[in-house]
């Protein structure tokens, strides 16, 4: 391997590493990376299976039936 070729290859590798470092620093500043460097999970809705939806539906039906039977006063 020619010395000039090795130097050129190393300079290209250095530029690539510097670009990676800059992008990681941008992610960290924007809050998308935690202090340990782990990517933070986005908050949002969680997917529910059909069984989970059925349990929630049954629970809410019991809840509203109980409130209705007690004659709960609705807020304004």
Question: What level of helicity do the residues show?
Answer: 55-70%
Count of alpha and pi helical runs? 2
Rg to the nearest angstrom?
Answer: 28 Å
Mean pLDDT: 84
Q: How does the helix and strand content classify structurally? A: mainly alpha
Strand content: under 5%
The ordered string of helix (H) and strand (E) elements is: HH
- Distance from N terminus to C terminus (CA atoms, Å) equals 82 Å
Oligomer: single chain
Please count the beta strands (DSSP E, at least 2 residues each): 0
Give the overall silhouette: rod-shaped
Show unreliable segments: none
Please give the largest β-sheet: none
Structure notes:
- This protein is mainly alpha-helical.
- It has a domain at 1-40.
- The chain contains 2 helices and no strands.
- The N and C termini lie far apart (82 Å).
Present the secondary structure layout.
Layout lengths: L2 H28 L19 H21 L6
What features would you highlight for this structure?
mainly alpha
Brief write-up:
By secondary structure, the chain is an all-alpha fold. The protein has helices at 3-30, 50-70.
């Amino acid at each position: 391997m020619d010395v000039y070729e090795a130097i050129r290859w190393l300079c290209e590798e250095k530029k690539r590493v510097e670009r990676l470092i800059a992008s990681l620093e941008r992610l960290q500043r924007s809050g998308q990376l935690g202090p340990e460097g782990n990517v933070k999970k986005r908050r949002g809705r969680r997917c529910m299976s059909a069984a989970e939806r059925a349990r929630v539906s049954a629970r809410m039906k019991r809840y509203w039936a109980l409130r209705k039977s007690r004659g709960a006063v609705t807020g304004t």
